[in-house]
Amino acid sequence: MQDSSEAPFQRRSASTNAINLTDRKNAAISRGVGMTTQIYADRAENAEIWDKEGRRYIDFAAGIAVLNTGHRHPRVIAAVKDQLDRFTHTCHQVVPYESYVHLAERLNVLVPGDFEKKTIFVTTGAEAVENAVKIARAATGRSAVIAFGGGFHGRTFMGMALTGKVVPYKVGFGAMPGDVFHVPFPIELHGVTADQSLAALKKLFAADVDPQRVAAIIIEPVQGEGGFYAAPAAFMKALRELCDQHGILLIADEVQTGFARTGRMFAMDHHEVAPDLTTMAKSLAGGFPLAAVTGRAEIMDAPGPGGLGGTYGGNPLGIAAAHAVLDVIVDEDLCNRANQLGGRLKQRLESLRETVPEIVDIRGPGFMNAVEFNDRTTGLPSAEFANRVRLIALDKGLILLTCGTHGNVIRFLAPITIQDEVLGEALDILEASMLEASAGK
């Protein structure tokens, strides 16, 4: 969770209206809903947001990877408006509709895996993860689930249990669901190799849980909140082999990585192996609440009728938006554009290595990129420096997010539809902010 305190670096004077809104927010909304900025949005278009005071910001957060197709993409808005004129809710479990069926058919083709698939729709990424675990347990008759340190899978109780970070996600909420185990995610920058991560799995099987009792292993192909670390290809292949050896299902959490963000439709498309189940949400519906689980047909059919679903699952507006999103990704060649934009961003960051010695790593496939900072004196992860860059950039009109177990990573999640000139402006702000932060040491 990012530090929302902006007082030390805030140059813009807060208006009376903004102060009043903050006071109202503090009085009306639980403090448990953290806020990265005190910007109150008034309108947005593609990669730009204007606040209630008319100030313009370039959005490099995109609702935390929700807006790969940008704010209010015309084709998404048109599809939703058309659906509004037809109906907004029936509950698919009561009165079904063809658009839900068609979107399932499309995902069954697009999701990695050369096998027959089926899909269910729910509302949030956490709900997709919960249902993937339910499906895996029903299909295998087993209960244990293995996840990775630094992973993030949601704020529901099972989501919290699977998440590999205590603060702020688990602290104060009591006991987590049982039969959940964690092993280190392979991050060579932090001294954990793929072989060491696999060895930890095997040690877990020897010391803590019989592999014959494990229903699933869940992994983000690129960790999101954990710091944008990509799973090595050799590790993913070995993980698939280990799962096959013990009859364990492999779940790919593609909630943040899906829909062209990594330069492919899904991050698992970068690998030679496929998961048994894939969870997705965020950019699936371009800003409308929709999530899904897609997987092997026989596994997806394991739960009995009524065991899966939800009142709002597959809401018609979200379904309509998702159809438009998939069309836009293809018609505007967003996978290729993600690679181009990511290359441009990483090239600019690389040019700053000598003048910003706090930079220790620049990484990420496609347009799912990150820069990691250490203190130049101690060599230790520096959340303070990352947050300083974020706040300086915010003051200059660029919205950034931090992440990582140590909070020392800035992640870049601008819409893939961002205009070239707006990206150039954002990169200039980013460079100036990093230089200013470094010079202030």
Give an overview in words:
The strands form three sheets. The chain has a seven-stranded mixed beta sheet with strand order 4-10-9-8-7-5-6, with helices on both faces. It has a four-stranded mixed beta sheet with strand order 1-2-3-13. Strands 11-12-15-14 form a four-stranded antiparallel beta sheet, with helices on one face. The protein has 13 helices and 15 strands. The protein is about 35% helix and about 15% strand. The protein has helices at about 15-30, 60-65, 75-85, 100-110, 125-140, 155-160, 195-205, 235-245, 295-300, 315-330, 335-350, 385-395, 420-440; strands at about 40-45, 50, 55-60, 115-120, 145-150, 180-185, 215-220, 250-255, 275-280, 290-295, 360-365, 370-375, 400, 400-405, 410. The protein has about 450 residues and is α/β, with parallel strands linked by helices. It is globular, with a radius of gyration of 22 Å. Mean pLDDT is about 95; it is low at about 1-10. The two termini are about 25 Å apart.
Briefly characterize the structure.
37% of the residues lie in helices and 15% in strands. With 441 residues, it is α/β, with parallel strands linked by helices. The chain starts with 15 loop residues before the first helix and ends with a helix.
Essential attributes:
alpha/beta; 441 residues; seven-stranded mixed beta sheet
Q: If strands are numbered along the chain, what order do they take across the biggest sheet?
A: 4-10-9-8-7-5-6
Protein structure class: alpha/beta
Average pLDDT for all residues: 95
Instruction: Please tally the β strands and state the result.
Output: 15
Helix content percent band: 25-40%
The dominant shape is globular
Unreliably modeled segments: 1-11
- Individual helix count: 13
| Biggest sheet overview | 7 strands, mixed
Q: Whole-number radius of gyration?
A: 22 Å
Strand content: 15-25%
